[in-house]
Amino acid sequence: xxxxxxxxxxxxxxxxxxxxxxxxxxxxxxxxxxxxxxxxxxxxxxxxxxxxxxxxxxxxxxxxxxxxxxxxxxxxxxxxxxxxxxxxxxxxxxxxxxxxxxxxxxxxxxxxx
Length: 113
What we know:
With 113 residues, the protein is of the alpha+beta class. The chain has one domain (14-106). The protein has helices spanning 14-31, 34-40, 80-85, 87-106, and strands spanning 46-50, 56-60, 69-71. It has a three-stranded antiparallel sheet, covered by helices on one side. Strand 1 (46-50) and strand 2 form a beta hairpin. The longest helix is centred in the last third of the chain and has 20 residues, at 87-106.
C-alpha cells in the first residue's frame, strides 16, 4: 500500500512576507474609516497576525488566537501623518512597519524584549 505523506508548506521569503504585511495594512487603512484605523494603530484591541503559511491579517484579538505570530498594531508606531500624506511617504511608512514586523517575527521563541 502507498503511504500518505503530509505536504509541507514552504515559508514565504522575507520579501514576500514584507509585501503581505504592507498589503494587509494598506487594505485595512483603505477599508476602515479614518478615525477607526487611527484608533486601531494607537490601541491593542486588534492584532496583526501571521499564520503558519505566511498569510497576514488584521483582526480582533479573539479571532486570531491560533496564529503563529501576532502583534498589536498599537505597538507598530505607524506614522499616521505619512499615511495620510500618501505617495512615496506613505509607502516608506508602511515599509518601515513591515520591516519592524519581520524583525519581531524572526526573533527566536525564547527572545524576551
